[in-house]
Amino acid sequence: MSTPTPEYHSFPEEAFTRTIETARQLDEGRDLRDLTQITSAELGTMELRAACISVTSGNHRVCLNIPIVGDICLPLPFDLPDGTVLQACVFLRTINFGIPTGVCVRISAGGQEIVSRCFP
Question: 36: Cβ–Cβ under 8 A, 6 or more apart, which residues?
């Protein structure tokens, strides 16, 4: 028995562009070449939500097309029936000066996160 072709849900590309612009505004006016301007409290990774969409489960997974990453499928808990409406949110990870370092996707059902995956 063959597995049916999954339906890929897509996030809006413009949401990523706007999110990167927002992350860069935090360090606007700073000189990237002068790392002494950055305090230890400002170091680290920041995650900004880029977009959330409604998706439907199928074959115990949800498949997404994520700008920057491409097509992925995430497994869902065994007790979640096919056809369940879920929320998929994608977050852009950045370091100082709004430089993107990765993407995280989180799937929720009834307000509870059920699966999460990050890409470097």
Answer: none
Among 44, 55, 26, 40, which residue's Cα sits nearest to residue 114? Answer: 55
- Residue spans of the domains in the chain: they are 43-120
- C-alpha–C-alpha distance, residues 22 and 65, integer Å: 22
* CA 25 – CA 83 distance, rounded (Å): 40
SS3 assignment, position 67:
coil
Do the Cβ atoms of 105 and 93 come closer than 8 Å?
Answer: no
Question: Minimal CA–CA distance to 111: which of 44, 52, 47?
Answer: 52
Closest CA to 10 of 80, 69, 60, 98: 69
Q: Are strands 85-95 and 99-109 parallel, antiparallel or unpaired?
A: antiparallel
pLDDT in tens, 16-72: 999 999 998 877 777 666 666 667 766 778 899 999 999 999 999 999 999 889 999
